[in-house]
Amino acid sequence: MARRLSVREGILLGLLAAAGVGYVWYEARSTGPARPGRRAGASKKAGDPLPDPPRVRMDLLAGRAESYDGAGRDLFQYSQRPPSAAEVRRLREEAERRRKELEEAQRRAAEEAERRRKEQEEAAKVAVLHPAPPPPPQPPAITLRYLGYLGPKDDRIVILEDGKEMILARKGDVVKGQFRVVDVKWESVVMGFVRPEFKGLTRELTMGRK
After folding, report:
1. Which of 15, 16, 11 is nearest to 65 (CA)?
2. Taking the mean position of all CA atoms in its chain, how far away is CA 86?
3. Sheet harboring 165-170: ordered strands across?
């Protein structure tokens, strides 16, 4: 099956054909009648051998042509194209829009900072004129440990531990000068406080825990 010639091969064949036609024309002109003033010995004789024809390199025609890459480097582009008038106008409008947005953001930030400053000043004035009441006193911490009880249900004796000291007390007794035994349960004891400002406050100690 005949192979279709590429564009490069067609161009080379055209150049070779043109060269052959030129060569034939040149030979025909050289062997024609001598022009006036031409020397007699200068004309080519009919029996002289013809020169060797040009050699055609078909192997070069069969070579693979390089493909064109439109995204490659443009050898004729020496500098970047200047922006058009429309592009310049668009860039200016974009810059102006960004400038206005920045100014608006700065204005809002300044207004928010001023509002917070005024709120803090008002809060400070209110705190000076109307100070907050002091927090209520807290009852002392109970560091006693409940170990259990002795005796009948109506007259139980609780066993408390304070470090290495063992303390025995009944319901209503004062312990360590600060605490009062309010109630004795099966696995816990309810302790109250002696000071009147802590009246009604109680803490329940579970057996084995502080």
Report:
1. 11
2. 34
3. 145-150, 157-162, 165-170
pLDDT band for position 71 (cuts 50, 70, 90)? low
Which residue, among 166, 127, 176, 123, has the nearest Cα to 145 in the 3D structure? 166
The CA-CA-CA angle for residues 143, 146, 152, to 5°, reads 145
Direct distance between the N- and C-terminal alpha carbons of the chain, in angstroms, rounded to an integer: 106
Position 137: which residue type? P
User: Residue type for 151, please?
Assistant: G
Give the span between the Cα atoms of 33 and 28, in whole angstroms: 10
How many angstroms separate the CA atoms of 78 and 162, rounded?
95
Q: Which of 7-21, 41-55, 117-131, 159-173 is predicted least confidently?
A: 41-55
- The string of DSSP codes covering the chain is -PPPP-HHHHHHHHHHHHHHHHHHHHHHHHTSPPPTT--GGGSPPTTSPPPPPPPP-HHHHTSPPPPP-TTS--TT--SPPPPPHHHHHHHHHHHHHHHHHHHHHHHHHHHHHHHHHHHHHHHHHHHHHSPPPPPPPPPPP---EEEEEES-GGG-EEEEEETTEEEEEETT-EETTTEEEEEE-SSEEEEEESSGGGTT-EEEEETT--
CA atoms within 13 A on the CB side of 59: 1
User: Mean pLDDT across the stretch 180-201?
Assistant: 92
* Contacts with 9 (C-beta within 8 Å, 6 or more apart), sequence order: 61, 62
